[in-house]
Structures are given as structure tokens and as C-alpha cells.
Amino acid sequence: MRILYVITSTETGGAEKALADLVSHTVREHTVQVISLKPLGPVAEEIKRSGAEVLSLNMAWYNQSRIIRRLAACIEAFRPDLVHAMLYRAIEYTRVACAGKHLILVSTPHFDLSKKSFALRWADRLLKDLDTLTVAESFSTARYLVEQQKYQKSKVYLLPNGADGTVFFPDASIRQRMRQEHGYTPQNTVFISVARLAPVKDPLTLLQAFRNVWLHCPEARLVYVGEGSERQKLEAYIAQAGLGQAVLLAGEQEHINDWLNMADVFALTSLEESLPLALLEALRVGLPCVVTQVGDMPLWVEHGKNGFVVKKQDLTLLSCVMTELVQTPQRRLDMGQVSLEFSKRITHTSQQYQHLYQQLKNNSFHVKTNP
Q: What is the CATH number of domain 172-343?
């Protein structure tokens, strides 16, 4: 089967990482091409290493009107049996580019559509029926598409994001090595956040809460793994608050499992989410998790059982639960064990997509819905 993936960008992010994992499995049995609307980013190199061809349409703010025509030409040249689009711009452009071509078209949002403007939501609603199937990566996304965007229930399939248990797992030897490399002692409680340093992830609120924790628990440490536009703002706050020895901005990293194993607690203070891969990866490693009450995160973190759920930008409660996790090491360990139990529910999404593609090709796939 010839499968074409279209994504808005190949910068480092949850959707991009999910695509890289999916392509690494799909390319074993099918001919695969990946098109990025924007210039190629770091994830493109990872995709290339898996053996797939990666192209860029080099979309910029001034040439977006031409992208659909160029995308349509690429589709015509590759002649795919199935097209799979991810992220808003790629989905909408691909829908138009595939119109009238009688192709199997799959879309996976990987974003919170409810936070888009009215105009963008209206455009999505107008074009949605061009999909053969929409695969929602979270329950909150599926519900919004059906209830608010009026997608046909029979064309929306819930396939939650997953994390590969052979890639993400607890490992005491990795933990010891990483903590030695970065100078963390057994007395240090290390919080880790794996996310873009972007406003939507709200890393500053996490940093401010950590400062409150650190003032009372100077053995606490905070690590950010990721890069983005908020770095300068974070660096300025770290310098102002005197947190230089307690906070590490590690930037982009390849071996995320190693970094998660180094930590004691995972934290993600996003303002909006669907179902972030980083959270699922942290559960696989067995970390207690502190997250905001957005998207599907509260379905995976039960308040008081395997972590804590707080309202977004609730600095006071966030500071309190983080302090509690520093001061109660046994509870931390108990919560981590519950995370490991919860992680058994995580599926390996890429393998399921292979079955889905074949069923769509054979016209044997049907979404089961309640009457």
C-alpha cells in the first residue's frame, strides 16, 4: 500500500513524535512518503532514518494560498492509496487537495479544536465530511468533534495516544547514571516537565510554583526538557529568583526515557491539551504526575492516587501539592506504583493503525456506535 502522511510541521512536539513512531512501523510493510507544510524540523531527520521520504512545501505566512495547489500536485505524483493528515492546517489543506480524487482520507487532530477561533472551527465543520475517517486521539477530542462540530458518529473513531512499553520503562541503573551525571543526590527530589517551552504549556507557572517549593525545601530540583519561545522569560525569572542551581533548562533531548528515569515527579501545567504523549511516557516509567485539569489528563491522573490534578494557573494549589510530594517520599513511591498499574491500559497506537489502514483499504472497517 502507498501511504502519504501530511503534517503541518516536523518541529519537536507530541503530534510530530507520534508521526515519527507511526512511520517507523508503517514503512516496514508499505511505501511511505511524508509531507511537511512548513520547513523541515528535527523530527524530519528521525523520520528519514526510518526509511521514509520526507518533503517540505516550505509554507510561510506569505505563501499559504499556493500550498494547496502544490500539495495537490504532490498527491497526484505519489498516487497514494491512503492519505493521513495531522494537525489543523495540514488536515484542512489536505481535505481540499484530495477533494474529488476518491482517495481514502484519514485525519488525526492532535490538538484542542475548541481553542481555535470561530472562523477556523467553521472551516473545519464545512470540510469535515471529506474525511473517510477521523481518528480522535483522546476522548475529549472525540466528544467535541461529535457534539460541537457535528461530525458523524459513524466516521469518528477513538484511538487514544499511546506510548511504547519497550521504549519507556523504569530502570534503576539508568536512574543512577543520569543522577550522577547531573549531580543529583538521593536527597534531591527532581521534578521534570517534558514539553515545548511555549505559552500554551505555561512553563512559567510551574517555575513560579517550584520557587515556592524550593524556598521551604531547598533540596528540590526542577528540569525542563524541551525548547521554545518561553526560554528567555524562564531564564530571566531563574536569574531573578536565584534558582540557577536548582533549575535545569535541558533543551531538546533524544533519550527521553533516560530523563524520565532520573526524575521523581512528572509535571505538566498546560493551558490546553488533548492527550499528551509525555504524560503517557511518564506513566510508563512509573512517575507520580502533577497535571492541569485539561483534555484527557484527568482520566489518567487520579487526584490523590497517582498524582494530583489542579486547575490551570492555580499557583497556590500547585505549590502545595508539589511541596507535599517533596515532603512525603513514601507517598511518592506509592503513587508511582499506581502510575505503573495505570500504564497497563496504554496501547501501542502505531500497531493498531496498521490494522486500521488495511481495513479501510479493504472497505471492511466500520465504527460501532450506540443506537
A: 3.40.50.2000
Which tens digits make up the pLDDT trace of 133-150?
Answer: 999 999 999 999 999 999
Three-state SS at 231: helix
Delimit the domains of the chain by residue range. Answer: 2-162+348-361, 172-343
| Surface-to-core class of residue 51, CB atoms within 10 Å of its CB (0-12 exposed, 13-18 middle, 19+ buried) | exposed
**What CA–CA distance (Å, rounded) separates 227 from 231?**
7
Which class does domain 2-162+348-361 fall in?
Answer: alpha beta
Tens of pLDDT, residues 263-297: 999 999 999 999 999 999 999 999 999 999 999 99
Helix, coil or strand: residue 256: helix
Q: Which residue has the cell 465530511?
A: 129
**Taking 80 as the threshold, does the pLDDT of residue 356 lie above it?**
yes
Which stretches within 263-303 are classed as H helix? Answer: 277-285, 297-300
One-letter amino acid at 368 equals K
| Coil/strand/helix, residue 104 | strand
With b meaning 16 or more CB within 10 Å and e meaning fewer, what string describes 187-198?
A: ebbbbbbbbbbb
DSSP 325: H
d(CA 252, CA 247): 15
